[in-house]
Amino acid sequence: MRVLICPQAFVGTLTAVQAAEAIAAGWRTRAPADELTLAPLSAGGPGFLDVLGAALDGLHLGVTVSDPLGREVPAAVLIVQHAGRRTAYIEAAQSIGLHHLAAHDRNPLLTSSFGVGQLIAAAVTEGADRVVVSVGGGATNDGGAGLLAALGVGDQRSLACGAAGLAGLADDALLGVHELAARLRPVELVLATEDDSPLLGARGTSAEHALRKGAAPHDVQALESGLGRFTEVLRRALPPGKDLLSGLDRRIDREPGSGAGGGIGYALMALGARRISATDIVLQGWGFDDLLSGSDLVITGEGCFDWRSLTAGTVYAVASAASRRGLPTVVLAGRVEVGRRETMALGIAGSYAVAEDRTSVAAAIADPVGTLAARAARLAGTWSVR
């Protein structure tokens, strides 16, 4: 039997690569004759670069950049030469990931996206004519103001210190952004994300994501006000042009994905970036259709399989692609919070939890590799055709 194993990270416990290896190890104990293919996946958060590095033949360029509070951290840019193009892949979380901060340091009023701008600058200096930026898992909510400062726009002291100072921006605070856009015009910028939230409003990045980044409830309005002022100043400095359908001025801050990465999506889209699915980028990197054509069963997974998994992200993309080929997909997750009726509608043949009850949660956290491998072994006993 040919089994394709393609989980994403089990956030907080296992990377995608570790999860795939644990599932494979467990499966082999019960079905050693099966042919296993490992293709770990990512939806654009931490581990995006590791997964792409496994899928693509590229060069990792080591750099030192700023973390969300301006401290130096090591990071990398993946450079891939293909079909006459030089593509640079960037994982924003390597610079501004929430994992860089202790719980008491998490405050999106103070955290900055400056390090992501440094990664983009390194990619352009390296000669990339296409730059793909994944923005999941970040700790910032500054609309990409820090990113622009790192690329030479305005005053670093007012733009690279988080969202707290954005409400007081002067009208000329973004001097140089027009020249930056012109300088980057030969470079294809790509925003890689599954997050379709806009920058502002009730579904915007401050309302939807700031609390998990350390904001207090009373901070949300301050963050929203700061981003509102930031958009006013940026629209004056870099007019966005007209909407082709309405003929009115384009409102990038209302477009899906502009709120991704705490608003990094907004800054990138203002500079001309187009938005695509981070999951799709990884699937293309693996040549996923070819992998499916050589498989009999597909196993995917994540830390928590819930209602959000049914409409976007890795599990959704894998199950949809497998269903089109008539292949059964099985989900192996840390927790399963959706029922069989919902999963069957997506074409999922079965979903299984590592932590099946409260008593097993502690064991799964204490030994994530061992418990995932053990659950995969049981799964092989059910699904493998021997």
Helix-strand layout with pairing:
Blueprint: E1 2-5, H1 16-30, E2 35-38, H2 48-55, E3 59-66, E4 72-82, E5 85-91, H3 93-96, H4 114-125, E6 130-134, H5 145-150, H6 156-159, H7 177-184, E7 188-192, H8 205-209, H9 220-237, H10 260-270, E8 274-276, H11 278-286, H12 288-293, E9 297-300, E10 304-305, H13 314-324, E11 329-333, E12 335-336, H14 340-345, E13 348-353, H15 358-366, H16 368-383
Parallel strand pairs: 1-2, 1-9, 5-6, 6-7, 7-8, 9-11, 10-12, 11-13
Antiparallel strand pairs: 3-4, 4-5
Helix pairs in contact: 1-16, 15-16
Which labels suit this protein?
6-stranded mixed beta sheet; Glycerate kinase, domain 2; alpha/beta; Rossmann fold; 16 helices; globular
Concise structural overview:
With 386 residues, the chain is of the alpha/beta class.
Structure overview:
- The protein folds into two domains: 127 residues, 3-Layer(aba) Sandwich (Rossmann fold); 231 residues, Glycerate kinase, domain 2.
- The relative contact order is 0.15.
- The strands form three sheets. Strands 3-4-5-6-7-8 form a six-stranded mixed sheet, with helices on both faces.
- The model has no long low-confidence stretch (mean pLDDT 93).
- α1 crosses α16 and α15 crosses α16.
- The longest helix is centred in the middle third of the chain and has 18 residues.
- The radius of gyration is 21 Å and the shape is globular.
- It has 16 helices and 13 strands.
- By secondary structure, the protein is of the alpha/beta class.
